[in-house]
Amino acid sequence: MARTEAEGVIVCPATHRRFRYFVKHLKRNSSRGIDGARITKLNIRRIGEDEDIVDFDGIWNLEPTDETRVVFEILRKTYN
What we know:
Order of helices and strands: EEEEEH
Low-confidence stretches: none
């Protein structure tokens, strides 16, 4: 199955904080994706920091928190 990668910077509309993201997504839904959909890998971190604050790689290693929920939902609607 073809996999596409995307990365960039997103501004949270609720807090105006900036986050860097990296996402791998498939063209079709997969059992390995978030909620059985297309995102198979997702990392989110604050700009200027080296640690991920959201990490999904087939399983949740770090789930979205209140701080990152809005950013996660935007990315999910875009790529999932």
